[in-house]
Specification:
Layout lengths: L13 H5 L4 E3 L9 E5 L1 H6 L4 H5 L1 H7 L11 E3 L3 E3 L2 E3 L7 E8 L5 E7 L16 H16 L6 E13 L3 E11 L5 H9 L3 H15 L9 H23 L1 E2 L21 E2 L23 H20 L3 H12 L2 H16 L8 H18 L3 H12 L4 H4 L5 H12 L5 H7 L7 H12 L4 H10 L30
Antiparallel strand pairs: 1-3, 2-8, 4-5, 6-7, 7-9, 8-9, 10-11
Helix pairs in contact: 5-17, 5-18, 6-9, 7-9, 8-9, 8-10, 8-11, 9-10, 12-15, 13-16, 17-18
Length: about 475
């Protein structure tokens, strides 16, 4: 079936046409009467959609994958992946579809992608469905990260399917329509390398360069330049996660993008009390993806990307390994630079403060925060008042007040910029207890808590009268907090 002539968009099929070996043509499962639970009207407008059309019967069928534009080629994408360190050579979109590519108002290309749209050839025995709760979680988290200035896939809409989804209990079903600069993953390259077809690997790399890192095409070693660019993008991304206390929860290689966007928010959460070993995912029993491990895991994942790309780096295997190792070694410097600058901004430190002084101050502060179980987000925001002469809001969060006072004296002597701190430190994040409250209410048909949470987290730096509860840490009886993948 095709869209009406007045449809506001046309979807391209660049990935499907250029890389058919990685694309299985498929159609979404039929949904009788999909109902919108959430629609991202600002994003819709940027993509050329009329939000009112998306609310119509045809628009909702389009968002559920049941009304396909002329010329579009919905496909399930193939990829491999290391999941908790173990390699799976054939994963792919088991419950997802790439509907196609579209161009936003700035001329940038984006994927339009569905999750929970039914079984595909990659389903591996799964039902291909998704429940309302996990899809709304991705909507909230992705839009929060976007508002925080962190590269991320974005959520266009969540639709209720009226289809029961069987997990530990029976849950209401949903489809998420999301947007990304692309869905190319480390695992996509692992799959291509695993086929043994080096021409396919080369075409995939050329596709990634053209889509994301055009400058790499003119480099002396284009594929090494591609890898270098991905290393830089991922180092910066993970540093930004760490600065806001975000824990992804399932950093498998199939969940790491080539573009440097955050993707696939399953058992994710934000820190309440600062805790370097925080783990929220119910399946991460060994703490592989704990908060403090995220930079290490990111570099490990990038090493797997380097392994996949080795034949393109040099004809001689030893030469290829040498240049890949050198490029991978730059991850640490990129990460440290992004983290240090981000922490300097969080503390409002002037540019003339020496890095060694700044790092010592940061390390001591984090030790004090850990020992006192200080609320990560609330503390940094409260500290902005300290830069203006009122340290009491931050001071009262510490058990060892004398230690904080000594630290604060040294910090204040550096003349921190409170305005910079307010621009850097959010008031509102998706507090875990509020996320659970909103998802539980939505499961019962009440979307008001979800709407309130979205209003807060999509304007995270500006105080909003009447929204004070969205800035408060979890109550004492909340936790220990555990999250679930939803698959």
């Amino acid at each position: 079936m095709t869209l009406a002539p007045a449809s506001p968009v046309a979807l391209g099929a660049r990935f499907a046409s250029e890389l058919p070996e990685l694309a299985a043509p498929w159609r979404a499962a039929s949904v009788a009467d999909p109902q919108l639970l959430a629609l991202n009207e600002p994003l819709a407008g940027r993509l050329g959609f009329d939000p009112e059309w998306l609310r119509s019967v045809d628009g909702r069928r389009f968002l559920a994958g049941n009304l396909v534009p002329t010329g579009a080629t919905p496909v399930a994408q193939a990829y491999a992946g290391h999941q908790f360190g173990g390699f799976s050579p054939r994963l792919g979109d088991g419950r997802a579809l790439l509907l196609g590519e579209l161009v936003d108002v700035d001329g940038r290309l984006h994927d339009l992608h569905l999750k929970g749209s039914g079984r595909t050839p990659f389903a591996r025995g799964g039902d291909g469905l998704a429940a309302v709760g996990p899809m709304l979680r991705e909507y909230v988290i992705s839009e929060s990260l976007f508002a925080l200035g962190i590269p991320t896939t974005r959520s266009l809409a969540v639709l209720a399917t009226q289809t029961p989804v069987y997990r530990e209990t029976t849950l209401p079903g949903a489809v998420l329509a999301r947007v990304a600069r692309s869905h190319l993953r480390v695992g996509t390259f692992q799959f291509a390398r695993g086929t043994g077809d080096l021409e396919l690997l080369r075409r995939l790399a050329d596709h990634a360069i053209a889509r994301h890192y055009a400058d790499s095409a003119t480099a002396a070693q284009p594929y090494l330049a591609l890898f270098d660019a991905v290393v830089t993008a991922q180092a910066t991304l993970v540093a930004r996660w760490m600065l806001v206390g975000f824990v992804h929860g399932v950093m498998n290689t199939d969940n790491m993008t080539i573009s440097g966007e955050s993707i696939d928010f399953g058992p994710c959460a934000f820190l309440d009390a600062f805790d370097p070993v925080a783990v929220f995912s119910s399946i991460d029993t060994g703490g592989r993806y704990a908060y403090r491990n995220q930079p290490v895991v990111a570099q490990w994942n990038l090493a797997r990307l380097a392994e996949a790309l080795l034949p393109l780096f040099a004809d001689d295997q030893e030469d290829a390994v040498a240049v890949a190792t050198e490029a991978l070694g730059r991850f640490g410097a990129h990460y440290q630079a992004a983290w240090t600058q981000g922490m300097r901004d969080k503390l409002g430190l002037p540019s003339d403060v020496d890095d060694a002084v700044a790092v010592a101050l940061i390390d001591e502060l984090l030790d004090h925060m850990q020992q006192s179980g200080v609320d990560h987000t609330g503390f940094f925001r409260a500290l902005g008042a300290g830069a203006r002469g009122d340290t009491e809001p931050a001071r009262g969060l510490f058990l060892d007040i004398a230690a904080f006072d000594a630290w604060a004296d040294r910090w204040l002597a550096l003349q921190p910029d409170g305005d910079l701190m307010d621009r850097t430190n959010p008031i509102y994040i998706p507090r875990n207890h509020l996320v659970e409250e909103a998802l539980a209410a939505a499961g019962d048909g009440d979307l008001h808590p979800l709407d309130g949470l979205l209003r807060a987290v999509t304007s995270p730096y500006r105080p909003q009268p009447g929204m004070e509860r969205y800035a408060e840490p979890a109550p004492g009886d909340f936790g220990p907090y555990r999250t679930f993948c939803g698959t």
